[in-house]
Task: structure prediction
Amino acid sequence: MPELPEVEVSRMGISPHLVGETIRSLTFRTPKLRWDIPVELKQLEGQVIRDIRRRAKYLIIETDAGCAIVHLGMSGSLRILDAEFPPSKHDHVDLLLTNGKLLRYNDPRRFGAWLFSQDGEHAVLGHMGPEPLTDEFNAEYMLQKALNKRVAVKQFIMDNKVVVGVGNIYASESLFSAKVHPTRAAGSLTLTEWDSLVSDIKQVLTTSIKQGGTTLKDFAQADGKPGYFAQELQVYGKVGDPCPNCGEEIEALKISQRNTFFCPHCQI
Ligand SMILES: [Zn+2]
Result:
């Protein structure tokens, strides 16, 4: 599933091909992805793309007549192709430019979304916590937010209302770096522990975005699946392997039905 780093890398991959260009037409080959595709999106035809922003895992394609809000769901991907390149089975949306290129959206499982917004706001973007890579996401904020909370810290940092974009892999990896046990009550972390955890979350996400940066050219290639990339992981998926710090075996457990990996020696 595309996580925040993949979505950010997708934004960086498609933006240079789209910003400043004019939309000739929008083609939908399905009426519905996760939700119905709204007819209002047709209002973007003839408009210049002003910017492409990201909020959590949504991409917001901005024009003066409104925005397309795009989510990659479980299996969505975007690429830039020549207009005459024939669509294949799961190519559900084409955004054709007047320069002969198009943005094509592929999504085998159809859990993604294309939505319309006049002003860039939308119900799907409401009630979200801060972006993890902004200064708003800091140790003091997390300490306040977690006050008296008994929920497991791993589940807490994965809650979009607390902070957006900390997916399952990144939660395990950052808790390992910060040496915090994933089942600890969120309210039990000290300011110093939040300081490490917050900076490790930022570090893990930033590293991942950098690793994805090597795939940027794939967005304008006809083959492959841009936006998905291999990452160097310390503990995620490594049950039974030796801990990279102490050599103890990595253990796994489920927290809120999600696989969680940790070192029982290093993480307290
Ligand atoms: Zn260890």
